[in-house]
Amino acid sequence: MTPAEAQERLLALGFSAEDAERLFLHFDDAETRGKLGHGYSRIEWLETLPDIDPGARPERVLTESGYERWHGRGALGYLTLSAIVDSQLADPPTHARVVAAERCFPTGMLGHYVRRLAEGGLVAALTATSPARLGHPDGGPKLAGTNPLALGIPSSRGEPVVVDVSMGQVTWGDVIAGHANEEDLVPFGGEHAHKAFALALGLQALVDSLLLEPGFGAVLLVARPDADPVPAFREHAHGLRLPGDR
Q1: Secondary structure element (H or E) that encloses residue 78, with its range
Q2: Residue 238 backbone zone (phi > 0: left; psi -120 to 50: alpha; other: beta)
Q3: How much is the pLDDT for 195?
Q4: Which strand (E) or helix (H) includes residue 60?
Q5: 217 and 211 in contact (C-beta within 8 Å)?
Q6: Sheet (strand 59-64) strand order
């Protein structure tokens, strides 16, 4: 799929030009970074979903000092998180803010959102839940989503550091794109898979504990940095690729 075709197919789904562009930027970012499971293949997946509402708009339903709550209101999670990022960049916290997003799915490549925040000068940590796809390493039912954790750290010189790690050995996007089989979707780590499973379950419980309604959601921590560690990390790494670098 070419970039032009990707944009045309998003418009054909009924999204406004602005929302289609937001979605395209997300999928294109994933595609160009080699995250094909979160790239253009997701457009083909969206085309198979029967209940997309391209006119839905997320809503900020609660604003307090240091805390916000958003509701997807039927919008794709991609667009909900994009709206949240726009809001944080337009009105950054004095020090730090926690944002809980309900009915926020699918969310895609979480590194895309924390990178935008880091490029805007903010520290960010983001996680999101998904259908239960990871089981206990000892067997049994699926108990947690792949529940990625993304961290964005700004830099006064060069690119920010962006960490985006799924708790699965592969991602659901890899399965959708045909790069992996569903049976490959287990906690990463081999004989140490209990560590990834523990993180997945902990992140699941963290998000679920901040939602008023059952369903999938996301939790974002955004803060103004008080220090600038990334340039020193890069100097110490002597040119080695750091997380998030192309």
Answers
A1: helix 77-90
A2: left
A3: 94
A4: strand 59-64
A5: yes
A6: 59-64, 67-71, 96-102, 218-223, 123-128, 149-153, 161-165
SS3 228: coil
Mean per-residue pLDDT of the chain: 93
Q: Give the Cα separation of 104 and 81 in Å (integer).
A: 8
Q: Are 219 and 99 in contact (CB under 8 A)?
A: yes
Using CA atoms, how far apart are residues 175 and 178, in angstroms rounded to an integer?
A: 5
Compute the CA torsion angle 111, 28, 241, 88 (nearest 10 deg): -30
Minimal CA–CA distance to 215: which of 146, 150, 128?
128
Query: Looking at the predicted structure, is the pLDDT value of residue 175 above 90?
Result: no
- Asked whether the beta carbons of 33 and 150 are under 8 A apart, the reply is no
Phi, psi angle pair for 36, to nearest 5°: -65, -30
